[in-house]
Amino acid sequence: MDLQEWLFKFVEYKNSFLKEKPEVERYDKGVIVKKNSSQVKYEVEEPLATRAVFEKVDVIVCLNNKRNVLFLESNWETFKSLDVSLLFVNPKTQEHWQIKPKFHDLVADRKELKTGLLSLMEGITIYE
Questions:
Q1: Per-10-residue mean pLDDT, the chain, length 128
Q2: What pLDDT is attached to residue 91?
Q3: Which of 25, 36, 43, 114 could form a disulfide with 57 if both were Cys (CB 3.0 to 4.6 A apart)?
Q4: Which residues, in sequence order, are CB contacts of 31 under 8 Å at separation 6+?
Q5: Which pLDDT score, from 0 to 100, does residue 108 have?
Q6: What are phi and psi of 41, to 5 degrees?
Q7: DSSP code of 28?
Q8: How far apart are CA 45 and CA 119, in angstroms?
Q9: CB of 42 closer than 8 Å to CB of 30
């Protein structure tokens, strides 16, 4: 299963618990979930890059691998300055973890950022 299909199934699953089902709209790089007057834009960005954060994406979806985690760590200042979450996924095992750099930066020790991110990555099966 590719990331785009995994993302659609993930959003469907999350929404299955809601009383009022939001509208889910697929587009070429992701999914937009619309409920009432709000929306959440998920976008697949593989490999991880900073392009998506400048296009008003709420959640960036990428593979759970060392390259993407190290990219996040080396571009931390860019990611933390925006209101974006990152969803690291292994579509083969259906595992994922999520981080919001803006919030994480408030509670984490910057000196331990790389160690902490790699630990989160290793908490699920690494995509190879």
A1: 94 90 93 93 94 83 98 95 95 97 92 96 96
A2: 97
A3: 43
A4: 7, 8, 11, 24, 25, 41, 42
A5: 87
A6: -105, 115
A7: T
A8: 22
A9: yes
Report the distance separating Cα 111 and Cα 97, nearest Å: 21
The SS3 call for residue 79 is helix
Long-range contacts of 106-115 (CB under 8 A, 24+ apart): 113/73, 113/76, 114/70, 114/73
Cα–Cα distances (Å) from 34 to 22, 26, 40, 42, 83, in that order, read 6, 11, 7, 11, 18
Tokens of 16: 């299955």
Question: Of 59, 103, 64, 104, which Cα lies nearest the Cα of 84?
Answer: 59
Q: Are strands 30-35 and 85-90 parallel, antiparallel or unpaired?
A: unpaired
* Helix-helix angle 113-122:66-74, to 10 degrees: 160
Both tokens of 101, joined, read 């750099």
